[in-house]
Amino acid sequence: MSNSKLRTLEEFIIQAQNRFPGATGELSQLLRDIGLAAKIISREVNKAGITNILGSDGSVNIHGESVKKLDLFADQQLISALDRSLITCMVISEENDGVVRLNHEGGKYIVYLDPLDGSSNIDVNVSIGSIFSIYMRPARYNGKLLEEDALQPGIRQVAAGYVLYGSSTTLAYTTGMGVSLFTLDPSIGEFILSESNITIPEHGKIYSVNEGSYNSWPEGLKRYVKYCQEEDPDSGRPYKARYIGSMVADIHRTLIKGGIFIYPASKSYPTGKLRLMYECNPLSFIIEQAGGMAVDRKRRILEIEPESIHQNTPIYIGSVRNVEKVMEFLEKYPEVPDEVKKATKN
Ligand code: P6P
Of 128, 180, 232, 251, which residue is the least packed, with the fewest Cβ within 10 Å? Predict the structure, then answer.
């Protein structure tokens, strides 16, 4: 592609903003800040094995700080980028128990972060990702900023996206007007538009779930996975099983190729393992904007009213027809209470 046709993330964001004459440019600035932090994180992730930034190795740098683990490094980079632009009042991140109030409490945005999702995989060079989710701060007559201001359902996100640090570094984001994909060109340090208005296939032939937890699954999910494995050439079954163990990578593949990603409630995780506010909501916003579907089992993920900033949720997400099919099985084979199971065994 000739240079004249290349569109950088910055150019794309500004052009998108110009379509809204009333836009103040603040959301554009916020997205550009996240893009900058992503470039810095990408550089560190891609040389982690060489610079021994894995884990905390106990050494101290010239400032007397212990060498940070990569996920804490990512957390710091993203939070300081958001702090610099003075338009974010509060950040909630997987790496911090409570909310992080930024110096400029007047900012109009609240940002959720999973700074480096799947970071346990980096030791074995498996793709990992950063996830962000952006809300407007609710207006209050006294202008106060309360922690509960962060408890908003996913349908109120103004923007969301992820960065995938894989064979290339890819950034995907949406502001509710479709999903655009960018690929980092390290030679010029810019994210270059690779696809705008991407759509997820209506049906896919890949199912993605950790089958090691099979015995603790809901009955309907066990039946659905057996359905995926049956021979039926007309419907393209048996489907392929793919599970990377890094949600951003599994969701990105699902966005591109279609299919379904599942992390159910189970005996080990009765309310699911994945976090609603900074994993499931932003990735569900992306998948819905691309024409897909995301539910916790019965409810649309984006309509879940959050009760706490770190709460978990089960998730079934991907192509519409695949999600609808698993919901059919969950409906048809409702949970059998343990005591009934025991009674029928004897
Ligand atoms: P399991 C990574 O730790 C993560 O939070 C997600 O990125 C990933 O989808 C999931 O957990 C993997 O969990 O239990 O299959 O190892």
Answer: 232
